[in-house]
Amino acid sequence: MSNEQIAQDLVAQFGEERIYGITENYGILNVTTSTETIIPLMHYLYQHPTFKFQFLTDLGGIQFPDVPSHEFGVIYHLHSLENNVRLIIKLYVSRDNIAVPTLTGLYACANWMEREAFDFYGITFTGHPKMERILNVEDMDYHPMRKEYPLEDATREDKIDALFGR
Q1: Cβ contact 89:78 at 8 Å
Q2: Which string of b and e fits 143-153 if b means at least 16 CB within 10 Å?
Q3: pLDDT tens-place string over residues 80-114
Q4: What is the tens place of the pLDDT at every residue in 9-28?
Q5: C-alpha dihedral over 84, 114, 12, 22, to 10 degrees?
Q6: Which CATH number is 3-150's, of 3.30.460.80, 3.10.310.10, 3.30.70.2740, 3.40.30.10?
Q7: Cβ atoms within 10 A of the Cβ of 37, count?
Q8: Residue 157 buriedness (CB in 10 A; 0-12 / 13-18 / 19+)
Q9: How far apart are CA 24 and CA 54, in angstroms?
Q10: Which of 116, 124, 130 has the alpha carbon at shortest distance from 97?
Q11: Dihedrals φ, ψ of 35, to 5°?
Q12: Three-state DSSP class for residue 71
């Protein structure tokens, strides 16, 4: 089973308009899809008799503030333990609607990963059983990994710029 076979199968099943951005980085196949396709795509990959991508290794949020209509994204890392093959699936959403369907019905481990992406980026996973903060305090009114906040507190007076190479 090669990356080319997986890519061809996905395009044949879902079409080029729903599976696109097919690349290979470091031997791992990367595909891009949409929020409308993510659930059927994941079920297909999970139940496929040959592929058997039944392990969600990681799920993470990302932000590209300068890319119109693709400001936020979710990256899924899947692993077929039986075939020892990895796959990365990406999807992007607009700042106007930062909502992605949940995968908790298929992968139980997605529960905590989706809550972390919500906690740090504000990406909401529709249908999630407990969409609330997991690592930050509940009354925090912002999402700290967004690129809207300065890296340093400009009001601090205890830093000596010469010690920080400035």
Answers
A1: yes
A2: bebeeeeeeee
A3: 999 999 999 999 999 999 999 999 999 999 999 99
A4: 999 999 999 999 999 999 99
A5: -70
A6: 3.30.460.80
A7: 20
A8: exposed
A9: 21
A10: 124
A11: -65, -30
A12: coil
- pLDDT given for residue 164 in this prediction: 67
Residue 22 corresponds to which tokens in the numbers above?
Answer: 């097919």
Burial state string for 54-79 with b = 16 or more CB within 10 A and e = fewer than 16: bebeebbbebeeeeeebbbbbbbbbb
Residue 77 CB contacts under 8 Å (≥ 6 apart), including other chains? 56, 57, 58, 59, 86, 87, 88
Q: Which sign does the torsion angle of CA 133, 96, 151, 91 carry? A: positive
| Cβ-Cβ contacts under 8 Å for 81 (sequence gap 6 or more) | 52, 54, 55
**Alpha carbon distances (Å) from 16 to 7, 57, 87, 116, 137:** 10, 26, 18, 31, 42
- Report domain extents, the chain: 3-150
Is 73 or 137 the better-scoring residue by pLDDT? 73
What token pair was written down for 139?
A: 């009354």
**20: phi then psi, degrees, rounded to nearest 5:** -145, 180
pTM exceeding the 0.85 threshold for the entire prediction: yes
